[in-house]
Write a structure and sequence with these properties.
two-stranded antiparallel ribbon
């Protein structure tokens, strides 16, 4: 019984070693793959400088300088 287990173990070990050696022979001849380059990072969005904003005296919201208030319900909003 012990002899049968020993033979089975020897056969499995030989098959494993043959697999590893064949795999190394096949993959060793191919150049290693490089990873795909990562996609470019998104560009930052355009921001309005804080110096370009003015506060509406009626409702308190900030708006671009030179434009009228566009907040609905603001008394300073043009009709």
């Amino acid at each position: 019984m012990f002899a049968l287990l020993f033979k089975a173990f020897a056969i499995l070990l030989a098959l494993g070693l043959a697999y590893v050696s064949i795999k190394r022979a096949v993959l060793g001849s191919q150049p290693k793959r490089t990873e795909a380059p990562s996609p470019p990072s998104p560009k930052p969005t355009e921001t309005i400088e804080a110096d370009d904003l003015v506060r509406c005296p009626s409702c308190g919201t900030y708006r671009p300088a030179g434009q009228s208030c566009s907040t609905p319900g603001c008394p300073a909003r043009p009709t």
